[in-house]
Amino acid sequence: MPAPLDEPPQSRKTLRDRLIAERERFANSDRAATAAAALARSLHEVLQQIEPELLGVYWPVRSEFNAALALQSDESAPNLRLALPLALPFVRRSPPQMEYRRWDGSTPRAIDECRIASSDGEVVVPDAVLVPCVGFTRDGYRLGYGGGFFDRWLALHPHVTAVGIAWSAQQIETAELRPEAHDLPLTLIVTEDGVIS
After folding, report:
1. Helix or strand or coil: residue 80?
2. d(CA 162, CA 140)
3. pLDDT tens digits, residue range 41-74?
4. Helix then strand then coil, % of the chain, to nearest 5
5. How far apart are the C-alpha atoms of 66 and 86, rounded to whole Å?
6. Is the pTM for the entire model greater than 0.70?
7. Nearest to 190 by CA among 112, 118, 136
8. Mapping DSSP to helix (H, G, I), strand (E, B) and coil, where does residue 3 land?
9. Separation between Cα atoms, residue 114 and residue 111, nearest integer Å
10. Angle, in degrees to the nearest 10, between helices 12-27 and 32-50
11. Residues 141, 173 contacting (CB under 8 angstroms)
12. In the chain, domain spans
């Protein structure tokens, strides 16, 4: 819900902190397992429709949905689990940049400069990427952790299908987020409640 007109809107940091705390509570709730199964089904349906040749996934942190595990373990879509080539992002802090590295699905052997597990494979450019969201709007804007790594990468690769991944409880109003010039809308967003495009 947007802030009343006589109150200043909350900062992105405040909004981010609130949404991460809500996500943590949700991930530890008794609804999380059912929601994760529903999100995995929706994600599989989307991937079957867009048929990526190389999919950029992410290594989950801080109660994010584990898309990589869902792709590897869902028996309902073994063709995706076995045949879909994957890549993981690798972040450098200075200068700030992100690249994708081919990943074989095994335990990651590299750690990037944000201390997130990554791959030591060759640098690649996926044609579709899964993008974790701290928050999102119905018109496709995403709130991340504030580093701008995904935004910069997506700006350099406008042809890529960007699929946001989030729990439905992370949805916010556009007025709360107040998209800025560097914010790029995602192609679509997948939650446990379905797809927002």
Report:
1. helix
2. 10
3. 999 999 999 999 999 999 988 888 988 888 876 5
4. 30, 20, 45
5. 14
6. yes
7. 136
8. coil
9. 8
10. 110
11. no
12. 12-196
Half-sphere exposure of 149 (CA within 13 A, CB side): 22
- Please write the tens of the pLDDT for every residue from 99-136: 999 998 888 889 888 899 899 999 999 999 999 999 99
Token pair of 140 as six digits:
């496709």
Distance CA 164, CA 130 (A): 6
Chain-centre distance for alpha carbon 76:
22
SS3 56: strand
Contacting residues for 101 by C-beta, under 8 A, at least 6 apart: 87, 88, 89, 90, 110, 118, 119, 120, 121, 122, 123, 124
Backbone angle region of 105, left / alpha / beta, with phi > 0 → left and psi within -120 to 50 → alpha: left
CB-CB contact of 42 with 192 (8 Å): yes
Alpha carbon separation from 135 to 78, 80, 105, 159, 189 (Å, rounded): 30, 27, 27, 23, 11
Name the CATH superfamily housing domain 12-196.
NagB/RpiA/CoA transferase-like (3.40.50.10420)
